[in-house]
Amino acid sequence: MDEDKNEELTLPQQEFELLRLLKDSVASVRIDNVASKLNTDVNSLMRSIAELENLGLIRVNKAIRKIIELTEEGRKYLEVGLPEVRLVRVLVRCGCKPSINEIPSIANKYGISLMPNEVNYAISTLSRLGVVRVNKGVIEPISQDKLNNVINRQDILNQIKNEVFEDEVPESIKSIIQEFLRRNIVRVRERSVIELSITDKARDLMNRGLIKAGIVVTALTPELITSGAWRNVVIKRFDLSIPTPQAPIVTKHFFSEFLKFVKEVFISLGFEEVYGPHIELELWNFDALFQAQDHPAREIHDTYFLKYPSTGKILDGELMNRIARTHEDGWITGSRGWGYKWDPGRAVRLVLRTQTTSVSVRTLYKRGDGEYRAFTIDRVFRPEVLDPKHSMEFHQADGIVVGENLSFKHLLGILEALARGMGLRKVMFKPAYFPFTSPSAEGYAYHEKLGWIEFVGSGIFRPEVVMPLGIKRSRVLAFGMGLDRIAMILMNIEDIRDLFSRDINVIKRYWTNFSRFVNNLNR
Questions:
Q1: Contact 330/463 with Cβ under 8 angstroms?
Q2: How far apart are CA 196 and CA 2, in angstroms?
């Protein structure tokens, strides 16, 4: 369109409203704000923006801005409440001065969940803020006003749940945002932002009333022709020079590909894959591994117990009897056992398995003596507080090698071969202790940036483990690996939560790291 001509320009209603909004703004406007004011979404605006830019009516500028967003931990606290806020609510509700050990049970009374480790964390935060003090294990609130100020912290999470630009954070909460950054409740991320502004040409045409809104159609339909309505519409011209929006390229998830890669390493060394349930009996998760029933790992702080149904069944009474005797007096294993009365009721309680070793003992029970190698790769569950290095759900690889003439040297050789297959070139081993293996060893691999890191725990299953399962002649070499940790090391991932990210940009970035790692491995 020639600027010197006083021709009217008819635009679709949305494009006209967009121009009018920009005309009333003294500065450029972010596209998300434009979409919000026009009561639409950003994607619906893209075609209109491209057409207006092509007509020379608006300017489009792409800038990099820093935004503050909630991490996975922050989203969890948005739902359940910050630990310090939950503790304050307990103190306000009870109106007492409880001891530290009483807090979880008091919180539960008011329907507030507070794990012991969260209590300690909350007390540390409140003490630093001068809200409470601890005197001989008793929590004493210092000021009611300060207690209320802590509760207001929860509102800050609500303010930034949909992302906040760093330069728009109110001065009054900047110090709290900095604290949340240190605690990994929020994080700063760079984001490409589209900003729009009106051109002088468009402003002049708008002021002169030469841009109007009208009904714009893209095709002449039979209804428009027969009704004569075509006389009152503007038929839109197609501009083939405007590129169509690109759909995101489908990318494989790097962590699922890493798990497939590890499986291939096991299979290449003669292992076969076996499987087991996520919901497990304590018998397979603990008792069959000669773990005493009063062991701390079998408490609620370290294991998820099912509420309904809470118990299962063991159909093999002989197996139950052998395991009971082994725990009580050692049975025929040569051990003295643990010297207590074994409780079969506890053995049938249902838990979310805490280790994939339960799959290994199930396999031994099913197959018995012989020569075979088996592995499993799957998820396990433990009550952890989610942070960059810990998760309530993670992946383990568990393996067993069964044979009559196996030695500890065979175990070390297999572990070294697995490490090399996974790209951990330099390894070493040192003696260790595990309740169900003897002798035992921990394996360490050398990482160029992190130095020596532990990648496996291993040993030879004790007689107290294998004999009740029906293993009479064979030795069983056993080992377990934390695959999430290995993946983080090999792909330079700093936050365990990124392993399960659904953000396409994160997936692409670590897919590149995984591809580079595999390519270097194959050289």
A1: no
A2: 23
Identify the structural domains of the chain with CATH numbers, from first to last: 9-64+195-235 (1.10.10.10), 73-151 (1.10.10.10), 255-521 (3.30.930.10)
CA-based torsion, 177, 181, 185, 188: positive or negative: positive
Q: In this predicted structure, what is the pLDDT of residue 286?
A: 93
Give a three-class secondary structure readout of 333-378: CCCCCCCCCCCHHHHCEEEECCCCHHHHHHHHHHHCCCCEEEEEEE
Tokens of 511: 């897919």
Q: Sign of torsion, CA 402 408 413 419?
A: positive
- pLDDT of 300 reads 63
Q: How many CB atoms lie within 10 A of CB 215?
A: 11
Nearest CA to 335 out of 474, 476, 469, 468 is that of 468
pLDDT greater than 80 at residue 224: no
- Give the residue carrying structure tokens 């030469």: 210
Half-sphere exposure for 162 (CA within 13 Å, toward CB): 2
Q: What is the DSSP string of 7-67?
A: --EEE-HHHHHHHHHHHT-SS-EEHHHHHHHTTS-HHHHHHHHHHHHHTTSEEEEEEEEEE
Cα(269)–Cα(292) distance, integer angstroms: 34
Per-residue pLDDT reduced to its tens digit, 65-96: 788 888 888 888 888 888 888 888 888 888 88
pLDDT at 242: 64
Work out the angle at residue 504's Cα, subtended by the Cα atoms of residues 29 and 519, and round it to the nearest 5 degrees.
135
Percent of the chain with pLDDT strictly greater than 70:
93
Q: Are 196 and 49 in contact (CB under 8 A)?
A: yes
Backbone φ and ψ of 337, nearest 5°: 70, -165
Closest CA to 234 of 4, 10, 36: 10
Tokens in use for 300? Answer: 């609620």
How many other β-carbons are positioned within 10 Å of the β-carbon of residue 48? 21
pTM of the model: 0.55
Distance, first Cα to last Cα, the chain: 59
Q: Per-residue pLDDT tens for 135-169?
A: 888 888 887 777 777 888 888 888 877 677 777 77
Helices 408-421 and 254-268: crossing angle in degrees, nearest 10, is 140
Segment holding 414, helix H or strand E:
helix 408-421
pLDDT tens profile 303-362: 889 988 999 998 899 999 999 999 999 999 999 999 999 999 999 999 999 999 999 999
Whole-number Å distance between alpha carbons of 37 and 31: 10
CA dist 362 to 367, 368, 435, 494, Å? 9, 10, 18, 35
